[in-house]
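Hi all, long-time lurker, first post. I run a small reading group and we've been trying to get comfortable going from sequence to structure in the token notation. Rather than ask abstract questions, I figured I'd post a concrete chain and ask someone more experienced to write out its structure so we can walk through it together at our next meeting. Sequence below, copied exactly:
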Amino acid sequence: MVHCRVCCLATDQSALLALKARITSDTFNPLANNWSTTTPVCNWIGVTCSARHRRVAALDLSNMGLTGTVPPHIGNLSFLVWLNISYNDFRGELPMELGRLRRLKGIDVMYNKIDGQIPSGLDSLSKLQHLRLGRNNFTGQIPQEIGNLQNLKSLNMESNQLTGPIPPAIFNISSLQRIALSLNGLSGDLPVDMCNRLPKLELLLLSGNELHGRIPSGLDKCSQLQWLSLSYNKFRGPIPSVVGNLTMLKQLALGGNILEVLKLLECGTSIIYKDDINYVAPPINRKP
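-- Answer (accepted) --
Happy to help. Here is the structure in token form:
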């Protein structure tokens, strides 16, 4: 058993050294000396090992001033639960080998310059709860398979170059609390029943796309919504009166569309209109 642990940890070490080899600029020098064979892997900066298996369980390289690419060897970190390389200057594509990390619960690569398509195989990550790919240069469409991630709580793909429709299966992930897809080139309309299976959704950000059609009339089924942004799309028609039933709502942004403004004072929710329809006041306490 001891030999197995040493051997497997060596596999983790090799995977991380392959990542280090892909780092072309290390602004603050966090890895240069620390990530070496003379230092135990579990003592490396940004690395956390599990107490039970003594394998690499978390890799947090966020905000370390790193420039480079992510190698396919990352898929050999078979005990990895959390991967965070956000706020760096990683480039190139994410390797499809990420789909081999079946224990992963969180992926955060936000605020880099990663490009190419979102890798296939992410639907194999059945335990994934957080998928944060925003503020990069991803292209192509959102994979339909994302809808298979039935434990997902937050999905952030904002500010990329994604096109095509939002896969309807995403609106079937009942565990979702946050969806942020703003500032892409997404098109198509939103399903009328999109909120029927999103009882926990608190944030829905879809502004700055090419979405069209009518704003779904069943939005009130997302009863926990606190932030709703549909601004700067191509929505037409009336604002559904049921928006007034969203009593948890703190912010509403609908500007930059072609909408008919209706009175939405219902169920104690007061919506104050500006030119761009972007502010929701606190609920009014009505006297009986």
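A couple of things your group might point at:
The longest helix spans residues 2-21.
The two ends are 71 Å apart (CA to CA).
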